Amino acid sequence: MNGCVAEFRIPVYRSILAECKPWKASSFADFRQDAMPRGELSRFCGIKPGENVLFVAGGPGGWAKQLAEEGVNVHYTDASRKIANRVRRRKGKLASVRTFDAARIPSQNYDWVASFEPMPLRETALPLTVLRGLAHARGVKLFYRAMFNREFASRLGFAKLYGARRSSSGAAMPFESPYFKESAAGGLTPAELYFYTHDSFHALTLRSTAPSRQKARLDLLCIRLLQPKKSKPAATTIAALVSHPEVKRLGAGEEKVKASLERITALCECFKPGLTTLVNVE
């Protein structure tokens, strides 16, 4: 960069993981999903029997288990060890139950990375979850009720930076939901009673392409390589990044690395303040 120093911004894993608030078992009445549609989920979700799905922020596992019952090969995950252990005891046809944070999806390939209303990830790990889905799967699928459309659909505009193909579908479906009652401390808590009602559910798909997969993998790598060490801000050079063995394996030269840093800086606008940091790159 001819001796010039440029500032870019990256998400900081340590800060994001500290900010993520995993589901609590007490958030669910009788440890059941708080909106469980009645009907064939796999068709609504656009997932075929036999496909491999990594289900993140799985909560009590209702959606994941139902997809597994319909022949989908579902790998359930949640950041809460307590919740994952409860799901494991009654895993049904789930292919696996594991505990890890959605910001650090393993780099093995799946057909889809999916989640139902991952509220804990909204302003924290959701962009990284989507990025990893684009990098290591055919894409990402998010499912949510109409009242949460703004919470999720509007937060995923950054996917156009990667050329991901975005599509959505909706359907009015009957679903099971808990009654709520007032707690002694004030506010509402789920009661162990259920009723059936209708609502519009949305399935949002971000489909990865070969170019978007390549961009996502490079960006995730650059984010990892530029993570600050404790309180010391990260600093590097374009030449150092280009010469890194893992960057070389992706076939990324100087122009692709520069483009990656610019995408990552734009991606940082999706995070809450305090979850990103500036890096100096020469």
> Any idea what the CATH superfamily of the largest domain is called?
Vaccinia Virus protein VP39
Average pLDDT figure: 83
Total domains, how many? 2
- Strand content of the residues, in percent? 25-35%
| Side-by-side strand order of the widest sheet | 2-8-9-7-6-3-4-5
CATH class of the largest domain: Alpha Beta
What gyration radius follows from the Cα positions, in whole Å?
20 Å
Largest sheet: 8 strands, mixed
Looking at this protein, list some descriptive labels:
eight-stranded mixed beta sheet, alpha/beta, Rossmann fold, 2 domains
Structural commentary:
With 282 residues, the protein is an alpha/beta fold. The chain folds into 2 domains: 6-13 and 211-281, no CATH class; 20-209, Vaccinia Virus protein VP39 (Rossmann fold, 3-Layer(aba) Sandwich), CATH 3.40.50. The chain contains 10 helices and 11 strands. The strands form 2 sheets. The chain has an 8-stranded mixed β-sheet. A 3-stranded mixed β-sheet has the order 1-11-10.
